[in-house]
Amino acid sequence: MLPELLTLFHVLSGTLCVGAGGIAFLAPKGRPVHRAAGTVFLVSMLATALSGAVIGVLEPARLLITAFAGLLAAYLVLTGWRTARWRTGRPGGFEWVALVAILAGTAGLATLAVLALQTETGRLLGFAGEDYAMLAMMSALGAVADLTLLIRGPLSPRHRIARHLWRMGLAFFIAVGSFFTGPGARVFPEALRESGLLSLPEGLTALLILLFLVRTLFKRSRRDPGAAS
User: Fold this and answer.
1) What are the extents of the domains in the chain?
2) Residue 8: which pLDDT band, with cuts at 50, 70 and 90?
3) Which residue spans traverse the membrane (predicted)?
4) Which end of the chain has fewer CB atoms surrounding its CB within 10 Å, N or C?
5) pTM > 0.85
């Protein structure tokens, strides 16, 4: 009974997460709509991530990867949310705790990827080694960025926004993938699933993340047109 209720909660919160994330992503940044949708995205993303993690722990033989994906998604939105609320751009104890957590997740995913690739089928606990490796690389990206931040110190306002953007964006990408081509795809007709069209939202999301990052990092300042990006 508990796994079924958790799964229902996971699906409903994930659906809300995708909708709110899309609005926050496309709305003018800093405006009330963006902030409201971002708050809904944060809460619903944490709900779906943590419920997914619990489901993965309860059913490790079938969904262990979900536990790691949930950890990664929660890490991304929490560190992204935290970054948006910095006033000095200076990291603190929260970032050290987050670094330890994501390093543990990266090590676990890398181990599963190696074990899966060593099997005859290239799969372990229902998933391909490449699936574990992809999540491991995402986790490693966050860990490297955190370690660099902790060594170098405060970020400039522009890089603080970029850090917030790519972390929230990557979490949204994970949610979109889970909904359209992952477990959530079961709500769509089989013909649509087999058409390949459901992979388009993932590609579009990735493209938008890159475009917003480029605009954030390389757009010239209005106050100083000659400023380096």
Assistant:
1) 2-174+204-218
2) confident
3) 6-27, 39-58, 64-84, 96-117, 132-153, 165-185, 197-218
4) N
5) yes
